[in-house]
Amino acid sequence: MALRILGRLTSINVRKVLWLADEMGLAYEREDWGMPLRDPKVPEFLELNPNGLVPVLVDGDYVLWESSAIMAYLARAFGPTPLAPEEARARGLCDQWLIWQGSEMASVWGYAVMALARKVPGYDDETKIGESLERWTAKMRILDAQLGRTPFVAGDAMTMADIAVGLAVHRWFSVDREIEPMPNAAAYLERLRSESKGGSYLTDRTP
């Protein structure tokens, strides 16, 4: 039975899971869930994820939510894969950057993304835009410095942390505002486009 991945392509967290599955050559079926395509707040979906959020992975009778947990599961259940290093220190660095993207970076970009990338009506408070963009820029400086030391966030080889971080970098360069140059991050984005199967996820689709 094929894996089922529930979520819309325009969700950055859904694209994390899909990209990893593609890199690993896994067979899966994707179902559109998430507004405006299909409301995840209905009982059918809430039975799978009481938070009403995408993505959700269904593997037979096993259900899992939270994108980073799904990525870790895929790597363990269908690996081994070099994207999830087995050596403790290498895996620690991979997990560090994967968690950092989902906590430190994702926690600061919300208002700026809604205003400057997605152009959502009502997100027009310039003070809030500026504050969000300032905090986001600080995180991008940390990332750009790291990418000046190593070609990928956790070292010399691509890991699944680069999937999450790469999508975040794509989101940064999708902002409709003059932003601070991040040359190492820009080169990294092009490297991921050319050296992985993630090119289709690093396009102009909704960031």
Distance between the termini: 31 Å
How many domains in all?
Answer: 2
Structural class: alpha+beta
> Total helix count?
8
Describe the largest sheet: 4 strands, mixed
| CATH architecture type of the largest domain | Up-down Bundle
What form results from the Cα inertia axes?
globular
Average pLDDT taken over every residue: 95
Q: How many strands in all?
A: 4
Strand order of the largest sheet: 2-1-3-4
Strand content: 5-15%
The poorly predicted ranges are none
The CATH class of the largest domain, by name, is Mainly Alpha
In helices, the fraction of residues equals: 40-55%
Question: Which H/E pattern describes the elements?
Answer: EHEHEEHHHHHH
Describe this structure as you would to a colleague.
- One of its GO terms (molecular function) is transferase activity.
- It comes from Devosia geojensis.
- Keywords: Transferase.
- InterPro entries: Glutathione-S-Trfase_C-like (IPR010987), Glutathione-S-Trfase_C_sf (IPR036282), Glutathione_S-Trfase (IPR040079), Glutathione_S-Trfase_N (IPR004045), Thioredoxin-like_sf (IPR036249).
- This is Glutathione S-transferase.
- The chain is of the alpha+beta class and 207 residues long.
- The protein folds into two domains: 3-78, Glutaredoxin, CATH 3.40.30; 88-199, Glutathione S-transferase Yfyf (Class Pi), Chain A, domain 2.
- 50% of the residues lie in helices and 8% in strands.
- The protein has a four-stranded mixed beta sheet with strand order 2-1-3-4, covered by helices on one side.
- β3 and β4 form a beta hairpin.
- α1 (12-24) runs parallel beside α3.
- The model has no long low-confidence stretch (mean pLDDT 95).
